[in-house]
Amino acid sequence: MIGAAAGLTSQSQAMAQPVYPDPDPDPFFATPAGIADAAPGDVIDTRSEPPLPYFPTATVTLIKFRSTNSQGRPIAATTTVLTPADHRPGAPLLSYQHIINGLGTRCSVYHGLYDYDPNLLYRAVPLLNTMLLRGWSIALPDHLGPTAAYGAARLGGQITLDGIRAAQRVPRLDLAESPAAMLGYSGGGMATAWAAALAPRYAPELRLVGAAAGGVPMNINLMARGLGLAPHPMFGLAMGAALGLEREYPDRLPISDQLNEQGKQIRASMANACTYELIALGAMQSAGALAATTSLIDDERVWQVSGENSLELFDGTPTVPVFEWHTPTDPLIPVESVDRTNRRYCQAGVRLWSELYPSPDHLATAVLGFPSAVSWLDARFRGESAPSNC
């Protein structure tokens, strides 16, 4: 993770400018005046969307709602709700947090569905169709928020919870009495796991029955040190997360003013980049190679911000049952932080079920664990007591 240099002068702090994405050209996504007067989860606007050929039985509704950023300020966020053809009032609502590794507004789930490289979403299509066939409505939140603050995991949890609130407040969706659950893997699992941990404080009124999260980066500090301090093929994701966090914490994380010329060029190229572009732009780079000074890496303020977005270091715990899965040989995330978080949850009395899969690949583990995760969620929706293997 690239950080702010220790001992920055006030002049250099004033010069630091985050790189923000191009505004979404669709006016639906604009932040309205008076948003501060709305409560978290309040619906700002809705729009019926065209049918999607890969979800042939579902109708599609886009919802804009009020959420909260990491500074406690109001923001406008969106979620896309798929409603099954045989929907009945009060049937289950699942919020599925898709992986969003990107810094551009075009990287959102909504744009992935309609107009930007839908192949990135096809891996999830069979899974989501099985849920629609069960009669579940599915919410797909754009959990990076309006500035695509990749890496801001706590923000993702808040947007996820407010997206559920909003979906349940749209009368024509008939979800007001629905039990709700959450599912996600990797970056989507991070938003899911944060939502589960934040819910008792941030959205205690929600009727949540469970959260299933796999491959979760539980400690961004450890992950950043692993990906950022030496040349790494996936360094682009670490730099993307650093730039995304700078967008969310511009006063505390003035990264942009502390890059060398090569770093600034890569930063500019990443401003609207999505997954594969981030990886390609940062392949085999490192924080030391792109920083103007080595003190960037050692600034404690950097690690404080990433620590605030590391679930292992958060003092809250879920009150809903949790299903967790990962591979013990994951090359991308620090597995020891997952194990420590699981132990802490067990000690706090969380009904936790954890499964390990013998896969050498981070993304392949998602596919291996999804069937068990969906079966576990189905049992929660049916009201069965949650098992635990603590």
Walkthrough of the structure:
The structure is a single chain. Residues 1-14 have low confidence and may be disordered. The two termini are 33 Å apart. The chain is 38% helix and 16% strand. It has a nine-stranded mixed beta sheet with strand order 1-2-3-5-4-6-7-8-9. It has 15 helices and nine strands. The chain has a single domain (1-390), classed as Rossmann fold (3-Layer(aba) Sandwich), CATH 3.40.50.1820.
Shape: globular
CATH homolog superfamily? Alpha/Beta hydrolase fold, catalytic domain
Structural class, from secondary structure content? alpha/beta
CATH first level: which class?
A: Alpha Beta
The count of β-strands is 9
Give the biggest sheet.
9 strands, mixed
What is the CATH topology?
Rossmann fold
Return residue spans where pLDDT drops below 50 for at least 5 consecutive residues. 1-14
What is the domain total for the residues?
1
Strand content: 15-25%
**DSSP helical segment count:** 15
Q: If you compute it from the alpha carbons, what radius of gyration comes out, rounded to the nearest whole angstrom?
A: 20 Å
Strand line-up across the major sheet: 1-2-3-5-4-6-7-8-9
**Architecture in CATH?**
3-Layer(aba) Sandwich
Residues in helices, as a percent range: 25-40%
**N- and C-termini, Cα separation:** 33 Å
Give the overall average pLDDT.
Answer: 90
Q: What oligomeric state is this? A: single chain
The secondary-structure element order is HEEEEHHHEHEHEHHHHHHHEHEH
